[in-house]
């Protein structure tokens, strides 16, 4: 078992040197290996609205202007009609819509596109389609579609009664996002609820959009997670139909871990750690040095860490490091965790897949090491990393993923 000391790396690292960060990983990993490291084995029709033509300057400015619609439901439900009545009042470059909602009380819906953003540049959306802890006049939970992009430059929400939840409703709502905000259909839509996979996949396929299930923070739904937390506090809890203590209808899965596919096997592994400054250098060099890896938007997450804080990680060595990193890069890697009871490391990928990534011989010493690694992860706010190398004695990494343990949204 690799020794886990959580001491500063044995090599001095100049702040401006990328090579020093590789050396730090290698130094700690090599030291761990010398202490007996273990082996482990289309087309729904759609056209852009006329005002979204980006070929002319005036049209482009029109498409880019800020649109924010704060929709307030003024009356209690008094109709079984699916289509609410809408009155629109123009306000400069945007608008305000007042909607009489047929199912619920005084929720707030949003239609927003940042003024400075080119609509064509928004090629990936984050989407949640799920019930909310709010009851309508029938005593049934209201459902909501929430759509945004990674920068929250695009924001869209829409409420639905529970008796219209299907792929056709979702497909039409996705098309309405485009028509309402003057944006093209995205190339990809990311989502994190595995229970909605069938509906979301069918709706996306009919629109020619690639659905991507993932809880991977940097490439998936972090902006959506944060926005859902905000809406929980500012919208859902303020509604008269809010059900305090109501559990999410579609909670996030945490399935029993499966055996690791053979193509993901490495040769050796070791617990390692790097100062946060070194991790930042590794991340900043991803595009210039690596073909594979992933970073995090720490500013968006509101994470502030001192440069000297030690970030725990896992270094994996393989004689076929590049193919291994390529396979890992296509898996939407989410996080790593130690299962002390089973004496193994768990790799979470996608929205509901967990693999037994590595095992170790369970004894008092290895248990302390594993627990120390998890404690270090908690101390760093859940930040950790995965590094793939050709050898634990080498400086260079073939792949580097910055990972985060992120709690699920409250809904």
TrEMBL record:
All copies of the RNA-binding protein Tab2-like N-terminal domain together span 125-231
Q: Which InterPro entries match?
A: Tab2-like, Tab2-like_C, Tab2-like_N
Looking at the record, the residues that make up the RNA-binding protein Tab2/Atab2 C-terminal domain are 248-403
Q: Where does the source fall among the domains of life?
A: Eukaryota
Extract the ranges annotated as region (Disordered): 1-21, 75-96
The membrane-spanning stretches of this chain are: none
Q: Which GO terms describe its molecular function?
A: RNA binding
Listed Low complexity bias regions: 76-86
The protein depicted here goes by the name Protein TAB2-like protein, chloroplastic
Q: Which organism is it from?
A: Iris pallida
Lineage of source species: Eukaryota, Viridiplantae, Streptophyta, Embryophyta, Tracheophyta
């Amino acid at each position: 078992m690799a020794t886990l000391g959580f001491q500063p790396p044995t090599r001095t690292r100049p702040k401006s040197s990328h090579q020093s960060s590789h050396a730090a990983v290698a130094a700690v990993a090599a030291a761990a290996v010398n202490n007996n490291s273990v082996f482990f084995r289309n087309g729904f029709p759609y056209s852009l609205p006329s005002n979204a033509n980006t070929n002319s300057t005036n049209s482009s400015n029109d498409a880019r202007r800020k649109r924010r619609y704060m929709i307030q439901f003024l009356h209690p439900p008094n109709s079984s009609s699916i289509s609410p009545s809408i009155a629109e009042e123009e306000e400069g470059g945007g608008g305000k819509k007042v909607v009489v909602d047929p199912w619920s009380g005084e929720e707030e819906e949003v239609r927003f596109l940042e003024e400075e953003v080119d609509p064509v540049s928004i090629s990936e959306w984050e989407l949640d389609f799920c019930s909310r802890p709010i009851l309508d006049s029938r005593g049934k939970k209201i459902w909501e579609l929430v759509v945004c992009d990674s920068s929250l430059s695009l924001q869209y929400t829409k409420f639905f009664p529970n008796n219209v939840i299907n792929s056709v409703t979702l497909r039409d709502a996705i098309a309405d996002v485009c028509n309402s905000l003057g944006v093209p259909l995205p190339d990809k839509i990311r989502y994190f609820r595995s229970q909605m996979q069938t509906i979301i996949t069918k709706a996306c396929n009919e629109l020619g959009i690639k659905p991507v299930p993932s809880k991977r923070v940097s490439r998936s739904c972090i902006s959506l997670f944060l926005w859902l937390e905000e809406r929980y506090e500012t919208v859902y809890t303020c509604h008269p139909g809010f059900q305090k203590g109501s559990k999410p209808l579609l909670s996030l899965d945490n399935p029993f871990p499966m055996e690791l596919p053979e193509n993901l096997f490495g040769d050796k592994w070791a617990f390692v750690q790097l100062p946060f400054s070194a991790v930042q250098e590794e991340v900043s060099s991803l595009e210039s040095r690596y073909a594979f890896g992933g970073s995090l938007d720490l500013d968006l997450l509101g994470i502030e860490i001192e440069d000297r804080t030690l970030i725990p990680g896992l270094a994996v060595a393989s004689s076929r490091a590049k193919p291994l990193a390529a396979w890992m890069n296509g898996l939407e890697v989410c996080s790593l965790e130690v299962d002390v009871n089973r004496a193994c490391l768990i790799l979470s990928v996608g929205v509901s897949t967990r693999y037994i990534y590595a095992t170790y011989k369970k004894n008092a010493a290895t248990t302390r090491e594993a627990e120390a690694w998890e404690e270090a992860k908690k101390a760093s706010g859940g930040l950790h990393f995965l590094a793939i190398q050709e050898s634990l004695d080498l400086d260079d990494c073939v792949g580097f993923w910055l990972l985060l343990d992120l709690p699920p949204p409250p809904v």
